[in-house]
Write a structure and sequence with these properties.
Number of strands: 11
Bound molecules: pyridoxal-5'-phosphate
Order of helices and strands: HHEHHEHEHHEHEHEHEHHEHEHHEHHHEH
CATH topology of the largest domain: Rossmann fold
Strand order of the largest sheet: 1-10-9-8-11-3-2
Structural class: alpha/beta
CATH architecture of the largest domain: 3-Layer(aba) Sandwich
Largest sheet: 7 strands, mixed
Radius of gyration: 21 Å
Number of helices: 19
């Protein structure tokens, strides 16, 4: 292993020394290929996405009843797609470049129920387990109106099962809120660095929160151990879950529908470039899979990570995936982008998706705060720091860049889409703290 690690690092020496120094880097992925070639590695097909989508549709009547805020979207958990022309101008002025084409944002920060991208995969995985148990017990049938699940009998049944998850943040919120609503007994294992407001909110909803003095890895380990020793306990594994991945993937067809409703074309002359913040990889990986299936080779997926935690870039670049950690190259994995503070990427996602990702870049914490401030000023929208990692993507793809030249189209015909992954649940006091920190940075 040691020699494998050294030779992988040596082969990529110029990039590695850049990463080591925590300097922002764009790395074009040489393994990126066509959808047809890349699909062989994924291990899922279109029908897996359709299956996930159909499950979410079956649950829509349940959501309308259990979470009345989803009534306006008929029980479908989806976020707005918005053009952000003012932000485009703000980015151009701040970073002194021109961004050809149009800039859009996908506001997963406004997803109902848990206000982050985890309301896709996290909630979906809880539904998979709830449906399986309720079907087996004969409390529902697949063609029933699933609003039946909002009942004391179902709550009592699911209460005999425990859902466990290790998380410092948004995954814990999503799984906790959804599981408790369905009636599961649910335990969220949280590390010392988890924010107090998240623990308070979960406890208010009836979730058991177990706190650890050590880091995320220990919290996850304990969650796993709880599940191993208890047959009625289901452990949700952020690093290896195919349910999470497929829950995210449904976003592709939904986005296609939204662009078509807005009359926006995506084709060979009008490519779509999507910038996705990446932590362990399940969220951006699953969404990228869905996007590729929806738009084919006309969509280009780019992953964004903090300069101190570029775990997926490092794993794909070296080919070592989850056998390498950012600590192996001397990085500390400390970042204000808590949703992205992951030292070791998911090996499952890296191996499945490495042929379908165009590129990876890193962004430093100061820039995240600058963009948090710019976004609030220009569009009056708030995001948490992690959610802004995708916002510097269009700057790498400025009109004179090699990246844009490589797309081989009229630059004015490019649609840039920043995936804004969270911030909707952040309490007002914390928002003001983030904003004042942003304003304190010299321009
Ligand atoms: C979880 C999360 C991500 C990244 O998702 P992964 O599945 O960990 O890669 C990005 N942004 C926010 C706000 C998140 O909570």
């Amino acid at each position: 292993m040691e020699s494998q690690l050294l030779s992988a690092l040596e082969q990529n020496a110029p990039f590695i020394s850049h990463l080591k120094a925590a300097k922002p880097l764009y790395w074009s992925n040489p393994k990126n290929s066509t959808l047809e070639q890349g699909l062989d590695y994924v291990g899922f097909t279109r029908s897996d996405i359709q299956d996930a989508s159909a499950r979410l549709t079956r649950f829509a009547p349940y959501f309308m009843k259990a979470f009345p805020e989803t009534t306006i979207t008929k029980g479908i958990i989806e976020s707005p797609l918005v053009e952000i022309g003012q932000m485009k101008s703000a980015l151009e002025a701040h970073f002194q470049c021109a961004i050809a084409g149009d800039l859009f944002v996908k506001l997963d920060s406004q997803l109902p129920i848990s206000g982050s991208i985890k309301a896709r995969g996290g909630i979906y995985e809880v539904l998979v387990h709830a449906e399986r148990i309720a079907l087996k017990a004969g409390l529902i049938h697949q063609y029933d109106d699933y609003s039946k699940l909002f009942s004391p009998a179902v709550r009592q049944l699911l209460g005999q099962y425990t859902i466990a998850v290790g998380s410092t943040g948004n995954l814990g919120l999503s799984i906790g809120i959804m599981s408790a609503k369905l009636g599961f007994s649910v335990t969220v294992h949280m590390s010392a660095d988890a924010r107090q407001w998240k623990k308070d909110l979960l406890r208010e909803r009836g979730v058991e929160v177990v706190e650890y003095q050590s880091d995320y890895g220990v919290a996850v380990e304990n969650g796993r151990r709880q599940a191993d020793s208890d047959p009625s306990c289901i452990f949700i594994d952020d690093e290896n879950s195919k349910h999470l991945f497929l829950g995210y993937s449904v976003a592709g067809e939904r986005l296609k529908q939204q662009f078509s409703e807005q009359g926006r074309i995506v084709d060979s002359e009008h490519p779509l470039v999507v910038y996705l913040p990446c932590g362990v990889g399940g969220g951006p990986g699953g969404i990228a899979f869905g996007l590729k299936m929806a738009f084919g080779d006309h969509v280009h997926c780019v992953f964004a990570e903090p300069t101190h935690s570029p775990c997926m870039m490092l794993g794909v670049m070296t080919g070592l995936h989850d056998s390498i950690s950012v600590k192996d190259i001397g990085l500390d994995n400390v970042t204000e982008a808590d949703g992205l503070a992951v030292g070791r990427a998911s090996g499952f996602v890296g191996k499945a998706m490495e042929h379908l990702i165009s590129g990876f870049y890193t962004v430093d914490d100061i820039k995240l705060y600058q963009m948090l401030g710019l976004f609030k000023e220009s569009e009056d929208l708030f995001l948490e720091p992690s959610a802004l990692a995708g916002m510097s993507g269009p700057v790498w793809f400025h009109d004179k860049s090699k990246l844009v030249q490589a797309l081989n189209v009229d630059p004015a015909c490019i649609t840039h889409l920043v995936w804004a992954t969270g911030g909707g649940m952040v309490p007002v006091v914390e928002r003001l703290e983030y904003l004042s920190k942003a304003m304190a940075i010299p321009k």
